[in-house]
Amino acid sequence: MAEKGLLKGKTVGIDATTLEANAALRSIVRRETGEDYQEFLRRLAQESGIATPTREQLAKLDRKRAHKGSNEDWVNPHDPEAGITKLKDGRTHLAYKAEHAVDLETGAVVAVTVATGDAGDTATILETLPQAGEHIAEVACTTNNEEVGERVHPQGPVEAVADKGYHSNDTLQALGEAVVRTYISEPDRGQRHWQNKPEARQAVYDNRRRIRGEHGKQLLRRRGELVERSFAHAYETGGMRRVHLRGRDNVLKRMLIHVGGFNLSLVMRKLLGKGTPRGLQGLSAENLLLLLRFWVAVLAGAVEESASTPMFMSSHALPSRFLLCSRQNERISSATGC
């Protein structure tokens, strides 16, 4: 990708989304006892004095109970790496969290990681960004040389752009120590108190100054365009909102296939000028007419060859193009063509 100018690696945008796991939430069990959810509720009801609880009584007891979906207490034995989390539509389900790091100059995905569904953004960015740096450094070592110059930034990303879900004191301090300039949207937390926190205050103020500048606003706009585009291809068009695999490693392998297809579309557009599913809509009438004339010429040549062939020749001696045309006209009696 770097040979065609499809990767720069200096500025990286990061975002994450939730993938609904294949494991059912009703199959979770208590970690310490191994009992399922209904057995646990019946035991709580019996301990509270209800000898034979009904379904309505169990539901009422469950509504009043706090912290009933804690990942520290519950696990799915068939998919223990999936975490209980709330999806975007409000449902609670076992899920994984996929995170992308995208080169904001070209739109190429440089890293993808998969974590449990309950993992926070401020924790996963510290795993995704170093992985993106390793991948960019590997590409730079392969492509950069004296003849072509520096195509890819050899030190990896020096600027990180993300939404307000990634904003925290620890994250800004950690990226500052790694010499990475942050452009992370800041949530409204009201008046901050910085007693005995001079390093955190400086990191937050530096990030606030950068996102208010013109360069920071431009990077945040590009993040919303390029990073979300990779999510649309992988999860909306690619149908990965619900994964049908179990285990984080298996989900990650499937994600790498999807992201690899997305990056291949960038290569196609760079080499051929077309590479989107609706790319034919951009063809002009002259190009379509030229394509039709080409196929008419091919068919005319096949007809001339078949007309000049003697009638006593066997089918083994017929031109391959004539055989192709005749086989297409045969009536197929089965769906497999046999």
Distance between the termini: 42 Å
Helical amount among residues, as a percent range? Answer: 40-55%
**Beta strand %:** 5-15%
| Integer-rounded radius of gyration | 29 Å
User: How many domains would you count in the coordinates?
Assistant: 3
Number of helices: 9
How many β strands by DSSP? 8
Which H/E pattern describes the elements? Answer: EEHHEEEEHEHEHHHHH
Largest sheet: 6 strands, mixed
Model description:
The chain has three domains: 2-26 and 80-279; 29-75, no CATH class; 283-329, no CATH class. 44% of the residues lie in helices and 14% in strands. It contains nine helices and eight strands. Strand 4 and strand 5 form a beta hairpin. Helix 1 (37-47) packs across helix 2, helix 3 (121-143) packs parallel to helix 4 (169-177) and helix 4 (169-177) packs across helix 5 (198-212). The protein is flat.
Summarize the entry for a quick read.
The protein has 338 residues and is α/β, with parallel strands linked by helices.
